[in-house]
Design goal:
Elements lengths: L3 H15 L4 E3 L3 E7 L9 E7 L2 E3 L16 E6 L7 H5 L3 E6 L4 E5 L5 H21 L4 H34 L1 H24 L4
Antiparallel strand pairs: 1-4, 2-3, 5-6, 6-7
C-alpha cells in the first residue's frame, strides 16, 4: 500500500521526468472500499486503492480532418450487397456521398446500420478531401509515412540480426567447413576417375 508521502514523492519524480521523457499522466484514481467483517467480533476494515496510469506519448500527428458542411455534400442511400443477409440486400443501408466542389464520391457499407454508415462515410470523405487539399501534409500521408518508416526499421533490424548470426556461425564453423571442403574435393576426384572408366550410354 502506498502512503500519501510516497505517492507525492513518486508524482514529483514523474513531474521531473516529464521534461526528459514524453509521458502523459492521466488523473489519479483513488477510492476506498469497506469490506464487511465475516465474524461478529472483528470490525469491518477500510481498504484504500489508488492507481496512476502513465502512457508514452505517440508522435505528433496532424488533427483528424473535419467533414465538409452538409451544403457541399450530396447524400444517397443504396441497397447493399455481400455478407449481412437479407437486411443488407433489402434495405437501403449503404451510404454514398458526393463532395460537390471536388467531385469525390465515397460509398460505405461497413455495417448494417444506416446511421453508422453515414458517420463512417463522412469520415472517409473528410480524409479524401484532406488528401486532395493538403497532399503530403495530410493526416493519412503522415500516418502512412510513419508506418512505412517503422516497417523499414524493423526489416533493417531483422537483416542486421541475421547477418550477426551468420557471422557468428561462420567464425565457429570456419575450420570445420574448410576440412569438409577438402574432403569434398577428394570425393569428387574419386568419382571423376571412376566415371572415366565406365562407358557412357
Amino acid at each position: 500500500m502506498l502512503s500519501s508521502s510516497s505517492l507525492r514523492r513518486s508524482l514529483t519524480v514523474l513531474r521531473n521526468d516529464i521534461a526528459t521523457a514524453p509521458i502523459r499522466i492521466r488523473p489519479l484514481l483513488t477510492h476506498t472500499t469497506t469490506i464487511p467483517s465475516t465474524s461478529q467480533c472483528s470490525p469491518s476494515r477500510l481498504r484504500p486503492f489508488s492507481s496512476i496510469s502513465c502512457l508514452q506519448k505517440h508522435h505528433n500527428l496532424p488533427p483528424r480532418p473535419k467533414p465538409p458542411p452538409d451544403s457541399e455534400i450530396e447524400e444517397s442511400f443504396l441497397k447493399g450487397s455481400g455478407p449481412g443477409g437479407q437486411k443488407i440486400n433489402k434495405t437501403n443501408s449503404a451510404v454514398q456521398l458526393k463532395h460537390v466542389p471536388t467531385g469525390i464520391v465515397v460509398k460505405c457499407q461497413a455495417t448494417r446500420s444506416r446511421s453508422q454508415n453515414r458517420t463512417i462515410a463522412r469520415e472517409l470523405l473528410a480524409a479524401r478531401v484532406d488528401d486532395l487539399a493538403r497532399g503530403d501534409e495530410s493526416r493519412s500521408a503522415v500516418v502512412g509515412a510513419f508506418h512505412r518508416k517503422r516497417k523499414a526499421s524493423k526489416a533493417k533490424k531483422s537483416r542486421r540480426k541475421y547477418r550477426k548470426l551468420l557471422a557468428a556461425e561462420g567464425e565457429e564453423g570456419g575450420e570445420k567447413r574448410r576440412e569438409g571442403e577438402d574432403g569434398l574435393e577428394e570425393n569428387l576426384s574419386l568419382t571423376a576417375d571412376s566415371n572415366a572408366m565406365r562407358p557412357i550410354f
